[in-house]
Here is the input.
Amino acid sequence: MNIGEVAQLSEVNSKMIRRYEEQGIIPKAGRSEAGYRQYSERDVHILKFVKRSRELGFSMKDIKQLVSLWKNKARSSSQVKNIAQKHISELEKKLHETQTMLSTLNHLVKNCHGDHRPDCPILDELECH
Here is the structure.
């Protein structure tokens, strides 16, 4: 298969496929005599795995590890679980930070009159920090 066919089947665009190859996340594609990249069904499967990992927010570093562990049938599931648990912790931290920002902004908006007066608690808060 050529890169266009693989992109369509995996729902990963050609640019990202090339990038994943450069980063070593997927194996380098074979080449035809004319120099065109050639892919297999296995490559499509790997790309779908990578796409799903990206949808769950894993970093490229983690995805590279996960692909490696996925290919290694002698792996320990604890290695995979550790990566996922670390990712959960990072997501929970981001969620907490987002909730704090949302709460602060809601408070500031609630206390801003939003009228013709120049005083504004939103700008005051931004100025102080």
